[in-house]
Amino acid sequence: MPDTPTPATMHKNPPAPAAPGSGASATDAGRAVADRERGRTALAVGVVEKIAGMAAREVSGIHALGSGLSRTFGAMRDRVPGGKSSIGRGIKAEVGEKQTAIDIALVVEYGVVIPELARQVRENIIDAVERMTGLEVVEVNIAVNDVHLPDEPDVEEEEEETVPSGQRPKLK
Asked: In a designed cystine with 105, which of 51, 68, 90, 139 is the match (CB 3.0 to 4.6 A)?
């Protein structure tokens, strides 16, 4: 069974024009090119960051995304009424017209094999971003900032312990 082309492979290998008498129309073969001629699709950096964040979280062995400081600020931002949690926390992306590069900061669970985890995270991010956006992912740089120990409380757990449910934290 032939592989189904993804938008990323369509950018790399546009379909060849149909041969005369082959039964395929030139319109079908040139559709990918014609779509590009009809307008542009611009993707915000946040879109790529969210896709990469969701793809990274699918890999077991990751405790959290981001550095300790960004996780602390994120936990506080999540508590603000109307504040939204950031799926893309710990991820920075550079997005061009056809390519993207992604940097991700991770906190891993104690006991995981970090090079294997990094390989799985990289593959999952590349697959998801290329499939969903059509951009070619040129690199995924992974920084492992910490190892979460089983008996170590989480930053979010510490915040929950200090502020009773339904109450706002007291300002100093």
From this structure: 90
The percentage of the chain sitting over the pLDDT mark of 70, rounded to a whole number, equals 56
Task: Using alpha carbons, select from 73, 67, 97 the residue that is nearest to residue 85.
Answer: 73
CB burial of residue 21 (10 Å; 0-12, 13-18, 19+): exposed
Sign of the alpha-carbon torsion through 109, 113, 119, 120: negative
For 10-31, what is the mean pLDDT? 48
Q: Give the pLDDT confidence of 94-104 residue by residue, as tens digits.
A: 999 999 999 99
Distances (CA, A) of 63 to 80, 105, 146: 23, 11, 9
What is the separation of C-alpha 73 from the centre of its chain, rounded to a whole number of angstroms? 20
Overall average pLDDT of the 31-54 stretch: 80
Name beta bridge partners: 101. Answer: 94, 139
Element (H, E) at 35: helix 31-37
Where does 97-136 have alpha helices with state H? 114-133
Sign of CA dihedral 61, 65, 67, 70: negative
